[in-house]
Amino acid sequence: MRGTISISSTRILAPSGNERATTRARRQPAERPSTGALSTRRASPRDIPWIESWAASLGLPAVVGAGTLSFVLLEDGQRVGYMAARDQMVDTPLGSEPVRWIVSAFLVPRARGRGLLMRFGALLSQQHHRQGKVGARISTANTRMLKLMRVGGWTKIRSSRQWVDFVLDLRAPFGAAPSRRGG
Hints:
Strand order of the largest sheet: 1-2-3-4-5-7-6
Shape: globular
CATH superfamily: Gcn5-related N-acetyltransferase (GNAT)
CATH topology: Aminopeptidase
Largest sheet: 7 strands, mixed
């Protein structure tokens, strides 16, 4: 006669005090590394291979070229992010308005989770686009970014099954709140 083994995920006995403490400790988020010195600059021709390589590996468009304002985020002098925008007329609830439309943005994986994307936007706003409207199209699959846009004061202007368009009206430079996790 063959014996069978049954493994269940149902716990019959309550966890001991030591197990509860271990579980609680495991649920605490890991300490995030602090942010180094941040700066931005216009993307240059020598940045294009870096931009194209990272954009391709992340499955994003590497928008560079005429009519596109391209910027690189530097942390302690190292490239960690990219953002490109175009000035366009966009239909909003108030009619057709000029909007600086973000057409591509990314952070390299080691720079994520520290609030750097919003701080990148704040630096660019202070240096290059102090007032006016800024827009962005976010994939509906990117739930983390959708939440960030909603709590960040962006207004949803239209959507489809694949994307949501947001606009932010800048009456003063955009200010990103510092991350509560050390960034």
